[in-house]
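Incident log, structure service

09:12 report received: a user says their structure output differs between two submissions of the same chain.
09:20 pulled the input from the user's history:
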Amino acid sequence: MKKILSIALALTMVFAFAVALPATAAAAPAETIVEGASVSATVDKLNGNQNNLWITVADGSGTTVQNFAISNNAEGVYSVRTEAGCYTVYVDTKGNTQIRACYVASFSATCDTVIKNGDVRTMDGGKTAEAIGIKDGKVLFVGSNKKAEEHIGAITTVIDANGAVVAPGFVDLHTHADNIASGNNRLAENYLRQGVTTVLGGNCGSGSARVNVAGHLSNVMASGGPAINYATLVGYYDMRSAARIPDSVTNPSESQIAAMSAYMEQAMLDGAFGL
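09:34 re-ran on a clean worker, output below:
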């Protein structure tokens, strides 16, 4: 079993240049030049209900050709990713193509952290890479070890994953981490060792948020907050308690429903994730 190296980051690709055509624009020419990259898209109309969309990209990573099977008379948006950028093509119901957006990555930026020799799970159709670069808390680069060298500078921390899986941090939506603000719970070591970097508390009807969501979240964030991302639901029992509805009441009155609604509205404004 491979080890898993999770990254607790906003997984946002950062690019230096972006061009987006308006949704109402006429079909673009077959080829669009964007910062040294060319993109072309053609549709082969076949017999029956299926057509072939061919997208060809030539950029700093070489030439990439990708084929998509598309339904006849159906519109859609299709993307091709390379080590140098992301290219999106819109196809209308008549088979006309439009280069909707091209994002070309800047390879001159020095990363704060580079992870090399990993099994990087890109979450993009099963594709993997060897390295990942991080700058200002965001993913700047995903690609080969060779390309990663271009992002390594004097200030870069280089981590050798030694073949471990590098994946986005896992999200655990059903936890009872409501006491995450207590003592060593802030370290969240039990979650981090499993690759979990985001947890959701307040499950099963009742949580530490109780009636005061704002106070609970303020306590959680005191002293810098926990080592992982944390959000909380409002338990349905807590909502009933806030409206002072006894357990014996199974059919709340209109005024009691209004009281629960008012409480939930305020709880959401105070930072609750949901009910």
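09:41 both user submissions now match this output. Likely a transient worker issue. Closing.
09:42 reviewer note: The mean pLDDT is 79. The helical segments are 145-148, 189-192, 213-221, 236-242, 254-269.
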